[in-house]
Design brief:
The complex is a heterodimer of chains A (399) and B (70).
Chain A: H1 8-21, H2 23-26, E1 28-39, E2 45-50, E3 55-60, E4 75-86, E5 91-104, H3 106-121, E6 138-143, H4 148-160, E7 165-170, H5 178-190, E8 197-202, H6 216-224, E9 229-233, H7 241-245, E10 248-249, H8 253-260, H9 264-347, H10 349-354, E11 359-362, E12 365-366, E13 378-382, E14 387-391
Parallel strand pairs in A: 3-5, 6-7, 6-8, 8-9, 9-10
Antiparallel strand pairs in A: 1-2, 1-4, 2-3, 4-5, 11-12, 11-13, 13-14
Chain B: H1 3-17, H2 24-47, E1 51-55, E2 62-65
Helix pairs in contact in B: 1-2
The chains are: A alpha/beta (399), B alpha+beta (70).
């Protein structure tokens, strides 16, 4: 028998009829943890309930929302309601009639416990935070290759500092394998010596979707990384364990990119300003030296002429003084000499002889005492203009 | 010498040049060094270009990604 093909609406209507007629599904009590909570402006509440393995989409119509309901992500709740199909998109949901809050959900408890444990071990301590390089050359990005986070990161880097190598290690950012993937990626990039900084990123989501970033193995891997890690997980208010243990936390993937690189324009401007400043300082210095030199030259010109003039006058005076002194000395010496000459002349035997006296020499020696003479001695009698040789024949003393 | 080290030295040179006591000869040497550093920094800034690669999941080799594709 050939079956008639049904329309989608007919299929969905059929499923809905089965679901709503099921005695268990029609009156159900369920407990689970609140996630993906959205309170619509219409007053209807949309959320998921989940446990460790599974989740179910839920809706509470405005009329069934208790006035004092204070729902939060991660709260453990007990609800009653029925399962039905939303025919428009073929999805089934739990339509909640009543809800009771039981307490904080398991994931939130786990989060708090792990956070406290790691904090006590010192994994969040400031002293272990590595410095983020100010101008990285190679940035490792650990994220999903297809996620918006990667697009945001590359957009920011290409706008802000298009001078780096971005090396993407693609990982699953949610799900069972995600944490192992991330740990492997961190380890892999750490073996690449040239990576300067790692951005660990994924976009926003519920606590379940971000859960890999709350896992202990991921936290320990981040802590052990030799390369500084910027966590850029979630959106603004989402905090994960990875954020606490990372070297720097960015509120979004875009912000992570922003703090991982400097602004190229700022760097360019600073460098050019430095060059201009250096030129100016140097020119001023040279100008100042030149000015000093010109001024010194001017001073030198004036002094030189004056000094030469003074020196010339001084030299002239000295010469004159020396001449005068010499002349005076010459006159004195000449007079003295004349006087001495005159005296000498007066004392000269010649002058005595000129007056008619004679001198007696014996053996070329002037005889001053007759006692030096003996009979028979040959003597010379010296006149002014003649010498008479005589022989002594007689010596007679005269009283 | 990387950019940060070069830029830091350039700042030190400017500071030294601003000192009154430094001789003209020394100033000239510092200025020449400063110009060399400026050119070096400039070259470092100009030479690099944004390159995006990903590690292949199978071979772990780097594969270039076109920025438009992201």
């Amino acid at each position: 028998m050939k079956l008639k093909a049904l329309s989608i609406s007919e299929v969905n209507a059929y499923i809905k009829r089965i679901l709503t007629n099921d005695p268990i599904l029609y009156n159900l009590k369920v407990k689970g943890e609140v996630s993906n909570l959205k309170i619509h402006t219409s007053g209807h509440v949309y959320m998921s309930l989940k446990d460790n393995k599974s989740k179910i989409n839920c809706v509470i119509f405005k009329n069934n929302v208790p006035e004092d309901l204070n729902l939060k992500e991660g709260l453990e709740v007990r609800v009653s309601g029925y399962i039905s199909l939303y025919e428009k998109d073929g999805s089934y949901q739990l339509y909640i009639n009543s809800i009771e809050v039981e307490g904080v959900g398991n994931l939130h408890v786990e989060f708090a416990k792990l956070k406290e444990k790691l904090q006590n071990e010192g994994l969040f301590d400031q002293e272990y935070k590595k410095k983020i390089p100010s101008m990285p050359k190679n940035i490792g990005v650990i994220t999903s290759l297809t996620g918006a986070a990667l697009r945001d990161i590359i957009n920011v880097i290409s706008r802000r500092y298009p001078k780096v190598n971005v090396k993407v290690y693609s990982v699953l950012v949610q799900g069972d394998r995600s944490a192992d993937d991330i740990v492997y990626a961190i380890d892999f990039l750490n073996k690449r010596e040239f990576i300067d900084v790692i951005i660990l990123a994924r976009g926003g989501g519920s606590i379940e979707e971000l859960w890999s970033f709350n896992e202990e193995k991921v936290a320990r891997s981040i802590f052990a990384s030799q390369i500084p890690i910027i966590s850029a997980v979630g959106h603004e208010t989402d905090f994960t364990i990875a954020d606490f243990v990372s070297d720097l936390r960015a509120p979004t993937p875009s912000a992570g990119a922003e703090i991982s690189v400097p602004s190229y324009i700022d760097i360019r401007d600073k460098l050019d300003i430095s060059k201009d400043r250096m030129n100016k300082v140097f020119e001023n210095k040279v100008y100042s030296y030149k000015k000093d030199l010109d001024s010194t030259k001017k001073d030198m010109d004036i002094d030189y002429k004056e000094i030469i003039k003074d020196k010339l006058i001084c030299t002239d005076n000295c010469l004159k003084n020396i001449e005068n002194a010499i002349n005076k000395k010459l006159i004195l010496t000449r007079n003295e000499l004349e006087y001495i000459g005159q005296n000498l002349n007066n004392l000269s035997p010649l002058s005595v002889m000129s007056r008619g006296y004679t001198l007696v020499e014996k053996d070329d020696v002037l005889v001053k005492d007759p006692k030096d003479l003996s009979l028979g001695d040959n003597i010379n009698v010296l006149f002014e203009k003649a010498c008479v040789n005589c022989k002594i024949q007689n010596i007679k003393e005269v009283d | 010498m990387n950019y940060e080290v070069s830029y830091k030295r350039l700042q030190e040179i400017i500071k030294s040049l601003e000192e009154e006591t430094i001789s003209l000869d020394e100033s000239l040497k510092l200025y020449e060094e400063g110009i060399r550093l400026y050119r070096h920094c400039n070259k470092l800034l100009e030479s690099a270009q944004l390159k995006i690669t990903r590690f292949s999941n199978d071979t772990l080799e780097e594969i270039e990604i076109d920025i438009e594709e992201v």
